[in-house]
Amino acid sequence: MSSASRGTILLEDAPILAHSHFDGDQHVLRLAAPRCAGRALPGSFVHLRCAAELPMRRPMSIMRVDRQAGWIEVLYKVVGAGTRALSTQQPPSSLSVLGPIGVGFSPHAARPRVLAIGGGVGIPPLVFLSEQLRQGTEVPWKPLVLMGSEVPFPFRVRPSTILVPGIPDEAIGCMPLLDEWGIPSRLASRAGYPGCFDGFVTELARRWLATLRGPELAQTELFACGPTAMLRATAKLAREFGVPCQVSLEEFMACAVGGCAGCAVPVQTPAGPAMKRVCVDGPVFDAATVFPEPDSEPHPS
C-alpha cells in the first residue's frame, strides 16, 4: 500500500439497507458504511466481500453516498460467481467493506462546463461526481452526463424535462434521478431503446462538443468511466477538441490496496513510461497519460 493510502482505507461490517434489482442482471446495493461514506470521493471504490463463503473480494465503484445518514450505494452487474452470490444478499445481512480506495476525480473551477461520460457499470462514478457538483456552491458548475449501455439501463428511463442545446432531437431519454437534481443527462445505445441516441455514447459526446465555440471549449473538461475502448475513444475526443480529460480505469484486482500490483498499467510520466497501480495510484488518471497519441506511445524494444 502506498504511504498516501495508509490510514485512509477503512474496514467495516456494513448492514444491507436496500438491494434493488434491474433488467440485465444489474443491481443497486445500499450499505450502512458510515466510515467509508465520510471519506469517499467521486471515483473512489470499495473492495466488497460478496458472501461469507467467498474469501476474494470484488471492487465496486461508489455511486452515491449520504455522509449524514452514513450509507453508500454501489451499482454492479452479475458477471461471475462472486457477483451472483452478492445478488442474493438481502437485509438485514451484513457485508465486509474495505474502502474508500483510490484517487478520485478532480474537477477544476476554471472549467465549470463538465462533460461526464459513463458506459455500462462505469456509470456510478459520474453519478457521484454529479451529486458532488450539485452540492457545491462556490463554482457555477454546468454538468452534462451522457450514458451508454447495450443492455437495459439500471433505472426507469423517461423523457428529460431539461433542454440540452447541441443534442440530437431524438435523444430525449434521461436518468430520472439526475433530472430531479436539475442536471441534464442523455442516453445512447445501439440496442434500439426508445429515447436513446442510436450509436456509441462517445459519438453523442462528439455531436455535442462540435456545437461548442472556442470560449465554451476553454471552460470544458471531460470525465469518463467505462470499458477500455470507450475510454480510449474519449481520450481521442479530448485531443480532437483540445480539452482536458480524466478517466477512471476498470481493471481486475486481487488485493486492491497496492500490495500485489496485479492491476498495474503503463502510464506516461514526465520521467518516461512507468507502471502505475490502478487501485491506489488511480483509478482516475489524466487520459493523455494512459491513452497517449499513437506517435508518442512506447514501442516494444
The order of strands across the largest sheet is 12-11-8-7-13-14-17
Enter the CATH topology name of the largest domain: Rossmann fold
Approximately how much beta-strand content do the residues carry? 25-35%
- How many individual domains? 2
Task: List how many beta strands DSSP finds.
Answer: 17
Mean pLDDT, all residues: 94
**End-to-end separation:** 30 Å
- What percentage of residues falls in helices of 4 or more residues? 10-25%
- CATH arch. level architecture of the largest domain: 3-Layer(aba) Sandwich
CATH superfamily of the largest domain: Nucleotide-binding domain of ferredoxin-NADP reductase (FNR) module
Summarize the helix and strand pattern as letters.
EEHEEEHEEHEEEHEEHHEHEEEEH
Report on this model:
There is one protein chain. The protein has helices at residues 34-39, 81-87, 124-135, 176-181, 201-209, 214-217, 228-241, 287-290; strands spanning 10-22, 26-32, 45-48, 58-66, 71-77, 94-101, 113-119, 144-148, 158-159, 173-174, 185-189, 197-198, 220-225, 245-248, 264-269, 272-277, 284-286. It has 301 residues and is α/β, with parallel strands linked by helices. It folds into 2 domains: 3-101, Elongation Factor Tu (Ef-tu), domain 3 (Beta Barrel); 113-250, Nucleotide-binding domain of ferredoxin-NADP reductase (FNR) module (Rossmann fold, 3-Layer(aba) Sandwich), CATH 3.40.50. Strands 12-11-8-7-13-14-17 form a 7-stranded mixed sheet, sandwiched between helices. It has a 6-stranded antiparallel β-barrel with strand order 1-2-5-4-3-6. The protein has a two-stranded antiparallel ribbon with strand order 9-10.
